[in-house]
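Look over what follows to help learners.
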Amino acid sequence: MAFGMKNQAADLGKDSIGKLLVKLALPAILAQIVNMLYNIVDRIYIGHIKDIGAIALTGVGLCLPMILLVMAFSALTGMGGAPKAAIYMGKGDLESARKTLGSCVVMLIGTAVILTVVFLMFGRQLLYVFGASDNTISYAWGYLRIYVCGSIFVMISLGLNSFITTQGFSLVGMGTILIGAAINIILDPVFIFGFQMGVPGAALATVISQAVSAVWVLRFLRGKQTKLKIEKKYLQLKREYVLPVLALGVSPFVMQSTESLINISYNTSLYKYGGDLAVSAMTILSSVMQMIFLPLSGLTQGAQPIISYNYGAGNDTRVKKAFRLLFFVSFGFATTTCALILCFPGIFVQIFNNSSKELYDMASWAMRIFLAGSFAMGAQIACQQTFLALGQAKVSLFFACFRKLILMIPLIFVLPLFFQDKLMAVFLAEAVSDLLAAAATTITFFILFPRILKKER
């Protein structure tokens, strides 16, 4: 039994939908909660560094566009390849599923090398473009130059972990995140405070933890338990396998990469109207947003194999039942977390910084505006990711672009033209785009869903 974990693969075509969703989604949600800690623990520790916590937090926040871009390329390959592999397995074509995995391994490694070189060469200049000032550049570059050296580990662990969970090995997939997060949480205070490395110490802790996660994933996908196995003969870039992966992966890639563009847009606009303090507040707000988004992502990851497998097998009744359950659970979770955050914003701000009253006041005030429409994310993510699970890459891509490129980014720059309080108007762009995008995505899904099921697979 790999890694001493007893994890029987679920029967996606026969087991109870409710039990399957619990079995696959609960570990995925727990993994995403741990992943959330993985992503924000650096900011938590950095925000509490004596005397420089607030300004150092701003510097690390400026690195987010490039960190998100690395994650976006991981999603392009992993979230594009895993659903395609699941559809192949639903049809009984294991050979094509393994060739899909092999192509994804090559793509992940090649992309990681290119991104590492580009960021090391131009990262410092890009940070200034993204809103860095002379006060924050040393903290931003100190973190980024170390983090990008571990890009290959990030991409392998995130990109290939999808091929573990899509087979029903949810506990092993959770272990990928859990082991890395645990190491990161332990090493962060050791490097930051014990060795007095400060911000670079946080980056080094992240690189080491991601490296361990990558080894965990590679060992499992080379082991006896997995049906999707990494083998030398499959490590090829073949058009018939690469193009379908890219077609399905474009939507999650756009979702992740546009987060990078949004972060840049927010940082430049907030710096214009509120200076470094506003950028620091945005770092906290984006971290709290992850507290809603990442568990929702885990829920959709748990539902994706159920929907994709049964769609490939032609079992429409199970597809409908899985979607309905996903939709109502997602919306309920998003609504509950939104209410808690809006009622008690100060508690969430103090997680990241409790030494600057100015930062506390601004972030608490801004959070109620920024996250006012976050309850609608549950409906949007459930519909958008179900489009993806059904192989509807173009529709999913459109709505990924609609919320971020068509609505949010223009609103960040346009809304301040109509409000006297420019800073408030910038934060308001998130809530307005969340509500409009959720309404459009949900209505379109319920119109197209019956037609998609009638089409020949």
Observations:
- The chain is about 80% helix and 0% strand.
